[in-house]
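Tutorial handout. Part one gives the primary structure; part two gives the three-dimensional structure as tokens.
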Amino acid sequence: MHTDLGPILALYPTLTTIVGAHCGGRPNFLAVAHLSPMNHGRPQYLAIGLNQSHHTNAGIVENGQFSICIPSQDLLEKTDYVGLVSGKTTDKSGLFDIFHGRLPAAPLIRECPVCMECRLHQTLVLGTHDIFIGELVTTHADPSVLTGGAIDFAKVRPMLFDMPLKKYRALGPVLGDCWSAGKALKRKDKQ
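Part two.
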């Protein structure tokens, strides 16, 4: 018998990222784990959910651009820090080695093995949160995390955010191949 927990979000753990935007003329960063790919077509869209109290929101709206960087486990302390302090009172622009790609107001973090540049497509307001839907402009990856030209998340060593237990977690071992592990059952259905 399962225990009824009420409306508890049970989709954790989720990927921990650092979202960047220019706020008040300087780069600002925020740890974000509420994000989602919205489609697999072209253009590609990504969504991030940010509480309206965050300083970063104003920069995204003002410039129509933002970045999503994936920190490795080596950046645990800095990642947690940018989620603890507000850009309203703390200048976080000197914390990382910053570079820019195609979008001038989407600061990228060189220490993060994977960074994406997004152009704001749409903003939805859900209660106390802004949902920013961004069109993915391009992705930058350190060559050391690529396998056959694809991002290898075992090499990225990302952090996963476990909201219920308030912990950062690591990826586990590969369990199987996508769109392949269920083929045996599919064959049984055809018999």
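Part three, for discussion. The mean pLDDT is 96. DSSP finds four helices and 14 strands in the chain.
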